[in-house]
Amino acid sequence: MVKPVKLAAATAATLALLVGAAQADEGMWTFDNVPAAAIGKSTGFTPDAQWLKKAQLSYVRLAGGCSGSFVSGEGLVMTNHHCISDCIAELSSAQKDYQADGFLARNRAEEKQCAGIEINQLVDITDVTGKVEAATTGKTGQDFANARRTVLADLEKDCAGGDDKLRCDAVTLYQGGRYSLYKYKRYQDVRLAFAPEAAAAAFGGDPDNFNFPRYCLDMSLLRVYEDGKPIASPNHFKWSREGSKEGEASFVIGNPGSTSRLRTIAELEFIRDNVAPSFLFWAQERRGRLIEFGRENDDRRREALDDLSGTENGVKVWRGRQIALADKDFFGAKVRAEQELRAKIAADPKLAAEVGDAFTQIEQAQARYAQLYPRFIMLERSRAFDSELAAFARLLLRAGDERGLPNPERLREYGDSRLPALKQRLSNPAPVHAELEIALLSFSLTKLREQFSPDDPIVKAVLGKRSPDQVAEAAVKGSKLGDPAERLRLFEGGKAAIDASDDPMIALMKLVDQAARQARKSVEEEVDAVVEQAQARIAKARFALYGDSIYPDATFSLRLSYGKMQGWTEPDGQEVAPYTTIAGLYERDTGAAPFAIPPSWEAARGKVQMSTPYNAVSTNDIIGGNSGSAAINAKGEVIGLIFDGNIHSLSGDYGYDPRRNRSVMVDVRGMAEALRTVYDARHLTRELGVQ
Amino acid sequence: MVKPVKLAAATAATLALLVGAAQADEGMWTFDNVPAAAIGKSTGFTPDAQWLKKAQLSYVRLAGGCSGSFVSGEGLVMTNHHCISDCIAELSSAQKDYQADGFLARNRAEEKQCAGIEINQLVDITDVTGKVEAATTGKTGQDFANARRTVLADLEKDCAGGDDKLRCDAVTLYQGGRYSLYKYKRYQDVRLAFAPEAAAAAFGGDPDNFNFPRYCLDMSLLRVYEDGKPIASPNHFKWSREGSKEGEASFVIGNPGSTSRLRTIAELEFIRDNVAPSFLFWAQERRGRLIEFGRENDDRRREALDDLSGTENGVKVWRGRQIALADKDFFGAKVRAEQELRAKIAADPKLAAEVGDAFTQIEQAQARYAQLYPRFIMLERSRAFDSELAAFARLLLRAGDERGLPNPERLREYGDSRLPALKQRLSNPAPVHAELEIALLSFSLTKLREQFSPDDPIVKAVLGKRSPDQVAEAAVKGSKLGDPAERLRLFEGGKAAIDASDDPMIALMKLVDQAARQARKSVEEEVDAVVEQAQARIAKARFALYGDSIYPDATFSLRLSYGKMQGWTEPDGQEVAPYTTIAGLYERDTGAAPFAIPPSWEAARGKVQMSTPYNAVSTNDIIGGNSGSAAINAKGEVIGLIFDGNIHSLSGDYGYDPRRNRSVMVDVRGMAEALRTVYDARHLTRELGVQ
What we know:
2 copies of one chain form a homodimer. Chain A has a domain at 12-118 and 188-255 and 570-688. The two termini of chain A are 30 Å apart. In chain A, the strands form 3 sheets. In chain A, strands 1, 2, 3, 4, 5, 6, 7, 8, 9, 10 and 11 form an 11-stranded antiparallel β-sheet that branches. Chain A is built from 24 helices and 21 strands. By secondary structure, chain A is α+β, with helices and mostly antiparallel strands. Residues 1-19 of chain A have low confidence and may be disordered. Chains A and B meet through helix 8, helix 9, helix 10 and helix 16 of A and helix 8, helix 9, helix 10 and helix 16 of B.
């Protein structure tokens, strides 16, 4: 076992920086452009159309932002524990804390509904690039943004055809070089079958996050119901009994959220100089407040846990990215790569004419973005209103306004095809914690004043003669939006109901709504539209130069990654082996959180097979959003459950380093041994075929 | 009145970026190189030797890091309220909260001693460049660092001559291009005569910090005693009755702490990519923890206040610097300036030979620094041990070890000339707050684990099988170092007493002492020594090219800044007037902290002269450390008391922009009116000559 080290950026020479073709094991490939030959060469197995179709239909997306997959014929879905922590918190009570104690349904009747979880199964992909281009050709700026919004809304609506059980998402690929329409089957009755204790799922907590060797049982099992009964799921991945071996092929199917590998240097500099510092500045204070809030007593610690985990994860991600973007070798290689691409374009008169001043336009748009960013992020992205109640208030306020407009004219998230998901969100009975709400809203109002100055008209409108604490307390304590029934009443009542409401949180959000909308409009028209059109021209040049050997940046759409079970060598020469064992978990236990194993594992000492592989790494190219993805072998059997990347993967937003970028998974053998021996869940191991 | 805006960096064209001669009103000049002609040209007044000598002797330094000045013949010293907040906290009790209520001694007998404050009066400056060069010529790396440490320690010791009432500091100027020896008279019996309420002194709090228009009474009056009686201070600045007018000359005498204007681009990139992100990452979480700690109840809020103010100030400073260093115009101008300097050097064969590869050496040293920095900052700069008790423990531990060595071989801060100040620090009776200590030490131990990983040997040694909370609680609750008598006992007992001690905080600091010393040694030898020698060569080239028309970077040594009372024009065209009035304070009052005026000012409504100038700005080039500096007119009369810079001054670490860089002062007329009318302190206004 070797010690994990902090991000040491790769040297430029061996980095795949994606002007040209991807290198071995690199890429998050769309299912309509799978590099079969390269896969065969790297793994010895070449997937065919049937294999791919089954993989696509066995996979599911959790609408909140994770991946999952069917693992039995009776609707059983495997995903991470950290993907369903909202549900676990919501099912818990003062009497029964499933976060602390874990949850196991002994039979179907005991399975408990996760009201906030929607599961989507991708049933169809259609290329709609031609339709989008036809609708937007010759348009720029505001006209382009409007035309594009209209055509995408129409495409999504026509695709769903008014069927609430379908959801269609228009997906932008290659920064606007291609558009696809993804049609999903929606499942809203999702129930919890199994979740281990948080202490087992997230053993090592934030200190071990993004590190390896690792010892986490970051898994959960859900079941999808329809009409009160488990659905049939003939397309599913079986669990492998044998598991994997070092060097064996590993395929990861899931929804990587977002990467920036095809972005220009101007865009990356914007991220380095604006997005990363701004996020970390905000998140680190939020983190400190949440930790100290939770140190007060156990109830508060529980209430703050979810926000804290999310914040700490974001902090680690963005600190890693910041380090990668400040690394002279890494960023220098990106700069040279863009110079090469631009030289190749310049050398081809036809391409040069088509691309025109695209790079300069993007650069100018970033300079404009730097001016717009603070208001955009504070007002429209709600960094100034860090409160669930405030989010509900804005949703209701805007739903009231937007539903009065024709579908194509609405903000995209209020399009007809998105309304069922909004309604589900509003009806989620998860409790809102008033003290935590006040603490966070007060924090974020302080940030608003700090960023805009006490003399800014928005700040004066929001605070008046009161302090952030006073405003937060009045809005939270006076609001009834913690009650799902009240939220649904206002949603159903539409604009008239909102206008009639005297809820102070709605009043607060009304104060800033026009300014927030304006901030968004400016970014969409002056930045996004410009960048997207320029990037589309660059994308065409890339296709011309490199053909289909490139993959689009991740956009939370379905992707296939291929690779091998493999450790890596640290820059200082230390070898990191690809597997850990359950024995390592017991060795690492200190008895003090976050390195304390729960009582169930204490009790299993002596019974559990200590040599069982527990966590593992592979060369798969993944990123946030892939959480909950199954890792499968060539036979389509589950060999692991992705839950993290190693520390070197944090530069993966901008490029893939095959030497050290690794995905981290729970080994299927560790999951099976835990269910069998620690949790005595034989009914589940039987269903999974690994009893 | 116009609204303050956030830092908008200046355009490159008009920036003084200091390869060449300084421009009008720029510079923090040493008293042995005052640009008399330039001053005459800008202000209409040319100071002579007598004027300068009186200014030097009227000024004092607060050993903790502020400036001040004598303002009467009976030892009365004027400085900022925020410079003595430690003393105010220490004098306060549950019965009497001077932070909230202010303090006024009605007569000398009521003046209360500030045990932690030492006041130094600069009596002599000697150029010792030749001696340092003679001792270090031909040496590099470790040899250079040792030789330099030895010669500086010898110089300081010889200068003080064993007299506890003197303190001598060797001062490095021009990054090693010159060395001076500053001899100070030390005063350790300093008593508080007047301090307003924190609500008046820091009206507007963090939101208004670095902003203008401003409404702060950030002043305090101390009195220096010797042998139980006020000292005679024939050299002092009288308060002006008339105050200043727009356009009038303003001279600021004080101790600017540190600037980086002569640093190379490689050094600035190191600051941008390492120092700033690392500080903000740490400070923002600390800030969040302190705020939430204080939200619990009023006692805690008071306990955390000082740490919080310091952290928030640091955050604003470093965020401003980060923005300046990321600004393409600002930083681009610095890059071009260095290119010009290097071109001029290259064009002169003799200079080129002398400078050699100095720039490259600095660049390589920065790359090495990036590797060493995390351990250096966490262990040696105690970012991992955020606790007053831990600081005492390290001081005692090292004092025990170091005093066993010959003076020149010791760490500089344990040299014979520094021991009286150490002893004063140890005897300070200010209470240590256990809950706050535990919270901060736990926080910082978490950062240690986060930065080094749970598997690092230092982390394992410090935490063992315990959590940061457990380690912090055990060390704080078990330590007796909160008691000044115990600290003095251990100090006097030397190494034997430390070895015999079972204080858990000393045990904790012992665990990391060797690693911390090693981290420091590496930085001193592999970075500092290399940079200093290379910078000395560059400095000689600068002298050859530009003569005495350049000033050294600030190093917390006495400097003169000249300028004029003057507002500025914002980039968006808004004019900011140079003075605010007391009327503006009442207008800005909201009743909610930090915009709530205290009861004394409420009571003075109707009595106080509303049109009295209250705060003001001038073009003086200042920076942190200048807090408490007097602003004087050509007659040597106090026209104001510096307490801040405007938001544009935050880029002042790297360059001075005469268009917008402004210092912020309390106007002397506002101070006099407050003492007269609000605080009824006629005995003080009489002593100040403005009754």
